């Protein structure tokens, strides 16, 4: 026998809100990266991986430190404008080889090609569902 649709109302609402908020931030970040010509954009859905620190990773690369900075600045500006969110923290802004922007449930990695090749994040999280964005 099928359960009545009212069972859906018993789900925790915070999860639904978090997913909606995360997907809006995800789309905004990907569009910001595309605006600044970021390359090889991949999103990793980590929600089914217990040891993951976030629900999603977005990984992209930029060919110069100037482009890394431009992408990071644009991501932060757009997420603030569209979603009203500031990053929880960011790392790597001095060297600009690998910058991490942490929005708690969504973490962005903007990397130089050499750093991306060396650290191989997609391989490290290969059990995540990945999607390429162009």
Q: What is the gist of this entry?
A:
It contains four helices and six strands. With 134 residues, the protein is α+β, with helices and mostly antiparallel strands.
Description:
- There is one protein chain.
- The chain has helices spanning 13-35, 65-83, 113-119, 121-124, and strands spanning 39-45, 56-61, 89-91, 98-102, 106-111, 129-133.
- It has a domain at 40-129: Beta Polymerase, domain 2, CATH 3.30.460.
- It has a six-stranded mixed β-sheet with strand order 3-4-5-2-1-6.
- The chain is globular, with a radius of gyration of 16 Å.
- The protein is an alpha+beta fold.
| Helical fraction | 25-40%
The outline comes out as: globular
Q: Roughly how many Å apart are the termini?
A: 44 Å
* Order of adjacent strands in the largest pleated sheet: 3-4-5-2-1-6
Please give a handful of descriptors for the protein shown.
single chain; 134 residues; alpha+beta; Beta Polymerase, domain 2; six-stranded mixed sheet; 4 helices; 6 strands; 24% strand; disordered N terminus
